[in-house]
Amino acid sequence: MNRNVKLFIINNKNLYGGIGIVLVLLYHLLCLDESVSFYWLFYPGFIGVDLFMFYSGYSLCFSYNKNSLIDFYKRRIKRVGPIFLLLAITKTFLYILRGNDVSLFDWLCNISTLSYYGIGGQFIDWYLCALFLYYLLFPGIMYITKCIKLGGAFLLSIILVVTLSIYNIDWTYGAAIARLPMFMLGIVFFQNKELIKFESFLWFVIPMFLSIALYLYHTNIGGYTIMDMCTPLLMYVIALIFGNIKPKLCSWIQYIGMHSLEIYVGNVIVMAIIAFWIKGSMHIFLWYWVLNLAISFVLIQISNKKIGVNANS
User: Fold this and answer.
1) How many Cβ atoms sit within 10 Å of the Cβ of residue 278?
2) CB-based burial of residue 299 (10 Å sphere; 0-12 exposed, 13-18 middle, 19+ buried)?
3) pLDDT tens, 4-58?
4) Residue 148 contacts by C-beta under 8 Å, 6 or more apart in sequence?
5) How far apart are CA 268 and CA 198, in angstroms?
6) Ranges of each domain in the chain
């Protein structure tokens, strides 16, 4: 890989995060209203999560190498725990307002991520729950990645594509499993002292074509597996395009990328509100963007006022 491209990818986490959250917002609009044919153009937008996972794997390596294991976990909980707790409490109250019976055990499962595993409670969010699991398993994942290196990550991606095409795994778990190669690729970027050749990088195209073939044959694969394999190529294209644009022109993307977690959580809340109470395509469209702007603004202000917590840590 060209050195300038690799350095651009490493040094522009917020830019990629901003692009990623915009893609996710567009995709979630489709999830709320599939009746609007135009929204299907946003279907590949969940590839934004793959961008998040790449930088999660890359960034976690710094914290893991710099801190003790206990401090590593404390920092992860400090960063994601409060906003997940806010999300879990808010969505649980929305379930109650909708008329659901919520027991004390349900509350405990919701705020502890146990509801993600079907132990009890209601569905809160797959991504943040999976992220906590990735944090917990990170020492093992980092060690395995060091052993299998880039070629092993490629092979794993192929294995996952085949597995997810054969077995009917619930999408909330399949979406998390499919992101493992990108998470590991972020670790590879950190561990690899030499430049990763672009020719090697493009080997992800092989499982991409394989996943498309399997999708045509076996429709229960889930589109996220296809897009997951396209992510490295997308990252390279973004580097080529934005590498020639003045940073000031991209400042707004950098800003929302810095607060992508707050915007994502706000979006999850908005989706619940709209899915529960708002009908009609025009109403959904208007309320979707108004509520996203309003709730994201509030969450960003709360995040900025937290003492000792950097929004980009």
Assistant:
1) 17
2) buried
3) 788 899 899 999 999 999 999 999 999 999 999 999 989 888 889 999 999 999 9
4) 155, 156
5) 36
6) 3-305
